[in-house]
Amino acid sequence: MPQPIIVDISNPRFMEWLEEQALPGWFLTQRWFAKKNDVQPFILRLQEFGLSSDGLMLGLVADDSGHSQSGSPYLVSFIFVDQAMANELSENAIVGPIPFEFSQSPIALVEASSTEQGRWALMKIGAGEASLEWSIGVVHGRVFEQKNLEKEKVRWSQGSRWLGVEQSNTSIVFGDEVILKILRRPGLPGLPNPDAEIPLVLSLTTADPLTPPVMGVIQAGDDASGVMIGTLCRYLNGAVTGWDLALEAAAKFVHKRNGQQQSLENDAIQEHLQRDLAIRTAELHQALARIPDNEAFKPVPIGADEIQKLGLTLRIGADTIFQRLNEWNLKPLPESIQTIIQQVISNQSRYCGAFERLEKFVPEYDGQTVVFAIRHHGDYHLGQVLWTSKQGWQVIDFEGEPNKSLEARREKALGLRDVAGMVRSFDYAQAVAMRQMGATDDQKRLALEWRDQMSFVFTNTYFAMVGELENEIFPLVPESYTLRYQLLDAFILEKNLYELMYELEHRPDWVEVPLGGLISWLE
Question: Model-level pTM?
Answer without folding.
Answer: 0.91
